[in-house]
Amino acid sequence: MYRVVIVDDEPGALSVLSKMLNNYFDFEVVGTFSTTDNLIENIASIRPHVLFLDIHLGEKSGLDIARELYHNRCNTKIVFVSAFDKYAIQAFEYNIIDYMLKPVSNERLRKCIQKIEASLSSENKSPIQQAQKSGVSDSSQIRFNTQNGFILIDPSDIVYMEADHVYTKIAMTHQTSHYVAQNIGKILPLIDSVNFLRISRSVVINAKYLREVNRTQRQCTIFDGDKEFVLEITKPGLKMLDDHFN
User: Whole-angstrom Cα distance, residue 198 to residue 231?
Assistant: First the structure.
């Protein structure tokens, strides 16, 4: 779970961004601030993985905060969120990970989240793992066979997969889906990601899109940013989810 802090002097902007980030299961908003008072100290105490930072904040600007964190060698990833693009070049001097313009769309935030996850994931891997990954392919896309040929899919865009006899339905973000001529059991080794969990004999979910689990009804709710999906879970599937998020 990645800890997130948001700083913005507009209460509405704080609320909107918090709700948007809460749609991503691996991200938890642990602090929101509307001023820069004691902000450096608070960040040192909370130690968030990511800081979403506005530019115009009163006496101190977001750039001032980024500069202090940079000189303090703070490891927190910084994302600037501003209504103005004129500060972008200056902002990137402080090793920020992204710069988003207001109002932030779901699609733009999704791309930002992907950058953050890729950066944090890379830092958590050993040099050997990084070398192995870079040696496999320069692309994150995987080839899947179809009736008429093949398609290329980025696993991070897969919301869930469902077996359909010898075919597999791959449901993706933005309410798109594909049927591929491969067994779901043979697809999992190709993806090679701990985020993909088999919650039943026929269904595999991408855990980063998981929003809720209902033990009584043995169902889970998946949210891709646009639409919710309710899927059935078996008893072993519930245990797998418990183990994964324990």
Answer: 12
Nearest to 21 by CA among 102, 99, 113: 113
The model carries a pTM of 0.52
What is the DSSP pairing of strand 27-33 with strand 2-7?
A: parallel
Ranges of residues in the chain with a pLDDT under 50 are 125-139
Helix (H) or strand (E) holding 37: none
The confidence score (pLDDT) of residue 126 equals 39
Domain of 28: which CATH number?
A: 3.40.50.2300
Comparing CA positions, the residue from 40, 50, 41 lying closest to residue 2 is 50
- Which tokens sit at 31? 């602090």
Q: Is 110 domain-assigned?
A: yes
Closest CA to 241 of 189, 206, 216, 217: 206
Instruction: State whether residue 193 is helix, strand or coil.
Output: coil
Contacts 24+ apart (CB under 8 A), 114-123: 114/156, 116/2, 116/49, 116/50, 116/77, 116/79, 117/26, 117/156, 117/208, 119/77, 120/2, 120/49, 120/77
Report yes or no: 62 and 82 within 8 Å, Cβ to Cβ. yes
Report whether 63 contacts 91 (CB < 8 A): yes
Residue range of the domain that includes 57: 2-124
